[in-house]
Write a structure and sequence with these properties.
By secondary structure, this protein is mostly beta strands. It contains 8 helices and 32 strands. Keywords: Hydrolase, Protease, Signal, Thiol protease. InterPro entries: NLP_P60_dom, Papain-like_cys_pep_sf.
């Protein structure tokens, strides 16, 4: 995944510009490759001369292709594909891989939810098992499991079954002292379902002691992997931490506010691989401390997906200064230059907004780096409405006179789906932008909203019937994905990035569940094929 950068203005309308300022800025910073090395290391073999393409000096073959496209070839094969009426050009360049790992997250439950725990801020949606919806709720500061009877397990897990290695900590407490038998809260992991999982079990006894054990439940049969060891006493807040690498799990627990100890248990067991993370609570048989409540005050984790999406190809997406109207000498010179250009393109800019991307500032304003989706509602859902200038935290006046004031800090470093597209194509690559005034929608400017980008955006519509046979890397993909809004109206937009290691057609978009731009499948597969939400709701493909 190649990252590079461009010198860009910080206020006013975005000027149309070609690659010249990008090259100048790269030179000023010591080169685009130096920039990339410092921000996204390990994904390009720096120093490998074969990675850098040779200049294109021989004759080019230009031929008409279906769909208003023009193909350009050299001795090595296809060099570029241009489309009549569109500015984006698919150009052959150095081979790159784009991937993504799970974003670290921390849920402090600063929301109010009934009948479940709602959505964690970046970790996924909490799902419940056993009991009734009324057994699960969130009050500000606590995820609550109501233990309405003894000898019954209650589970809350994150709907992300692909977590392999991880490091997770839960801060837990009971609101009622145990009586008659233990009350336990466990951090579950490798969770397949409530009958198949591991758990780091913190047992609070009627005597006041607190013990930590590790258990495996398989097909409803419980095996103790590490016997209970007393780690303290009292029912105040406790922390349980589990770190797993391969088949080795390390477990510890300590009273919140005390010094963190060394690992209490280290166990090896390969029975379950990737699985969900979550919480299990139970008042043991014989307990008279029911009804009572198990409280989770924080759940934080870093982790990796065992098989993250990977898109590898040699296609770079560049922009002409004006829509393509036919091959000429100027375009010939430009395409030849692009073949050896490693300054940022559409895909690089998208990548520099995804999970783990390092911040980059221009004139004291951040213009690149990991983006969120938006601030939180009281119910924990992300708020839509973050445009490119909200990410940067500055005011903006559009060419038609529409003015947007500087946002409050809660909007900084966030982008909704169309905001991400406008940050990439508009702010960084110079496509003119407007806001909501339909009088400005002239087919050359980029509107604010998905519903307007689809029918009225710049470029050409490649498919308007929900198909994608002629899709090209860099195309916009638009969806009617939200059934709770207006049916039949476009409500989501992303950028097609190519086929992944399984041949799936994968796109990047900014989403609420992941909390920002993603090519992952958390909260719905980011693929155009298959039976997922976005595959079913694809409506239009546009080439800028």
């Amino acid at each position: 995944m190649l990252a590079a950068f461009a010198a860009v203005p910080l206020a006013g309308s975005v000027p149309a510009r070609a690659e010249g300022p990008v090259a100048a800025a790269a030179a000023a910073e010591g080169g685009a490759m130096t920039f990339a090395r410092h921000r996204i290391p390990g994904l390009i073999a720096f120093g490998d001369a074969e990675w850098f393409p040779d200049p294109v000096r021989g004759p080019l073959t230009v031929e008409a292709l279906p769909g208003g496209r023009t193909g350009v070839s050299d001795a090595k094969g296809t060099l570029a594909v241009l489309t009549a009426g569109a500015r984006t050009v698919a150009v052959r360049g150095p081979r790159r891989s784009f991937s993504e790992q799970k974003r670290p997250f921390s849920d402090v439950f600063d929301r109010t939810v009934g009948g479940g725990w709602g959505m964690s801020p970046g970790g996924g949606t909490w799902t419940t098992a056993n009991g009734e919806p009324a057994n699960y709720s969130v009050q500000p500061g606590s995820g609550v499991i109501s233990l309405s009877q003894n000898n019954s397990s209650y589970f809350v897990t994150l709907n992300d079954p692909a977590i392999g290695d991880f490091d997770a900590t839960a801060t837990v407490a009971l609101d009622t002292a145990p009586a008659g038998a233990d009350t336990s809260i466990a951090l579950t992991f490798g969770h397949q379902n409530f009958d198949n999982h591991y758990r780091a079990r913190l047992a609070f006894s009627p005597s006041g002691s607190v013990r930590l054990s590790v258990e495996r439940e398989q097909a409803d049969l419980v095996t103790t992997l590490a016997s209970a060891i007393e780690v303290g006493a009292g029912t105040g807040r406790w922390r349980v931490r589990v770190a797993r690498s391969g088949s080795t799990s390390q477990v510890k627990a300590w009273r919140d506010g005390a010094a963190e100890p060394g690992w209490t248990h280290v166990v090896q067991d390969p029975t379950f691989g990737a699985g969900r993370l979550g919480i299990r609570a139970i008042a043991s048989k014989g307990s008279t401390a029911v009804p009572s409540r198990a409280l989770v005050h924080q759940f934080a984790a870093t982790g990796t997906w065992t098989r993250p999406p990977v898109v590898t190809h040699d296609t770079w997406v560049r922009l002409l200064p004006a829509p393509f109207q036919g091959w000429n000498t100027e375009t010939d010179v430009r395409v030849r230059a692009w073949a050896t250009d490693v300054s940022p393109d559409v895909l690089a800019y998208c990548a520099m907004l995804q999970t783990g991307a390092a911040p980059y500032h221009e004139g004291g304003v951040q213009v690149l780096g990991e983006s969120g989706y938006g601030p939180l509602n009281p119910d924990g859902a992300r708020v839509e409405g973050a445009d490119f200038h909200e990410y940067m935290g500055i005011e903006w006046t559009f060419p038609g006179g529409e003015h947007k004031p500087a946002p409050s800090s809660r909007w900084h470093r966030t982008l909704d789906c169309s905001g991400m597209v406008r940050m990439v194509f508009g702010y960084h690559l110079g496509v003119p932008m407007v806001y909501d005034d339909t009088a400005d929608f002239d087919g050359t400017v980029l509107p604010r909203r998905s519903r307007d980008i689809g029918p009225s955006g710049p470029g050409v519509i490649v498919h308007g019937d929900g198909t994608f046979a002629d899709i090209q890397v860099g195309d916009l993909v638009l969806f009617d994905a939200d059934e709770e809004v207006v049916t039949g109206r476009l409500d989501h937009v992303g950028v097609y990035v190519g086929r992944d290691q399984d041949g799936r057609y994968r796109f990047v978009s900014s989403r609420k569940t992941v909390n920002g731009p993603t090519i992952s499948d958390l909260g719905g597969a980011s693929t155009l094929d298959g039976t997922g939400t976005y595959a079913r709701s694809l409506r239009l493909v546009r080439r800028i």
